[in-house]
Design goal:
By secondary structure, the protein is mainly α. Helix content is about 55%, strand content about 5%. The chain contains 13 helices and 5 strands. Strands 1-2-3 form a 3-stranded parallel sheet. Strands 4-5 form a two-stranded parallel ribbon. Bound molecules: adenosine monophosphate and tryptophan.
Length: about 325
């Protein structure tokens, strides 16, 4: 039996992934590779919806790819590719833009959030149409599942709406995909501000990066914000800092929260933080080392991405050809 397809994407917008990306998304992506025919796309076209330094964008695209491979994306099983290497993404996005309403696009909350600070007038049109390009990323691969974080739910809803609309207007063309949303307990919080989610735009001291050296990782855990009552128990409301440390510890070692509370209750925060820092280094160091090895051979890494793009192009071109035919374009010779 052939496996169902799966697609997800990530922006190459930083030099390092952080623990939230790793535990909240990547571990899950790696675990889905056996049950699905997976396509993982590094979305450089999306990255330029906000200004990027060209040299940095190029470096971050390779760094993102290297970290995904190092953290468990198996490029024999899954296609790992760069969005701009598959022209059909931009081509299908145009067709989908032409069946999307202005009002419909205007209701996307990510655009509203991202333009809140500086106003709509300084945003690019590309940022406005960002979710439609995302819909194209997805629909080209006819995936059954799209693993994403909760924040992407609205974009997947739009994707489904566009697929249903296209199918009913032009005849069955797209599989209508399902969002595979990670559970809330997969959410990792900032170590300095444990009620905010860990994010590259947060406090650098509260952000643990995959590419951080060991001493930096240990230091960040040791200075994590807790509270003053000294009690070790899981209570997200009353004790967000300690609870975040416990769920990080659990996520990184596979041990249950109860088991950890049993061991550390009464021991003070110092021991918990020290052992957690050690567990984090044990989990992260091999990923960083492997990523650095991959980055040291850019030609080999580019060859892996070229192979992924070839596999992606084959599927994407077939879908695009069908779409072009359905909307009434004459076939190019
Ligand atoms: P981003 O870096 O926001 O583009 O996110 C890339 C992926 O990592 C998405 O699937 C997010 O849902 C996930 N992610 C980002 N931050 C966190 C976090 N603090 N906890 C859990 N998952 C996260
Ligand atoms: N918008 C997604 C994010 O910010 C990234 C993304 C682009 C994506 N295209 C996609 C995610 C297609 C899933 C499927 O995280």
């Amino acid at each position: 039996m052939t496996k169902p397809n799966l697609l997800s994407g990530m922006q190459p917008s930083a030099g390092s992934l952080h623990l939230g990306n790793y535990l909240g998304a990547l571990v899950n992506w790696a675990s889905m590779q056996d049950a699905y025919n997976a396509f993982y796309c590094i979305v450089d076209l999306h990255a330029i919806t906000v200004p990027q330094d060209p040299a940095e964008l190029r470096a971050n695209t390779r760094r993102t790819a290297a970290q995904y491979i190092a953290a468990g994306i198996d490029t024999d099983k899954s296609a790992l590719f760069v969005q701009s290497h598959v022209p059909a993404h931009a081509q299908l996005a145009w067709v989908l833009q032409c069946i999307t309403g202005m009002g419909e696009a205007g209701r996307m909350t990510q655009f509203k959030d991202k333009t809140q600070k500086n106003g709509v007038d300084s945003a690019s049109v590309g940022l406005y149409t960002y979710p439609i390009l995302q819909a194209a990323d997805i629909l080209l691969y006819q995936p059954k599942a799209v693993p994403v974080g909760e924040d992407q739910r609205q974009h997947i809803e739009l994707t489904r709406d566009l697929a249903i609309r296209f199918n009913s207007r032009f005849g069955d063309t797209f599989v209508v995909p399902e969002a595979a949303i990670q559970k809330e307990n997969a959410k990792i919080y900032d170590l300095q501000n444990p009620t905010a989610k860990m994010s590259k735009s947060g406090d650098p001291k509260g952000l643990v990066n995959i590419m951080d050296d060991n001493a930096t990782i240990v230091k960040k855990f040791k200075s994590a914000v807790t509270d003053t009552d000294g009690e070790i128990r899981f209570d997200r409301e009353a004790k967000p800092g300690v609870s975040n440390l416990l769920s990080l510890f659990s996520a990184m070692t596979g041990r249950s929260i109860e088991d950890l509370v049993g061991q550390y209750a009464g021991g003070g925060y110092g021991a918990l933080k020290g052992d957690l820092a050690e567990a984090a280094v044990a989990a992260i160091e091999p990923i960083r080392t492997r990523a650095e090895e991959l980055l040291a051979d850019a030609a080999q890494l580019d060859a892996i991405l070229a192979d992924g793009a070839a596999r992606a192009n084959e599927v994407a071109e077939a879908t695009l050809a069908k779409v072009y035919d359905r909307v009434g374009f004459i076939a190019a010779r």
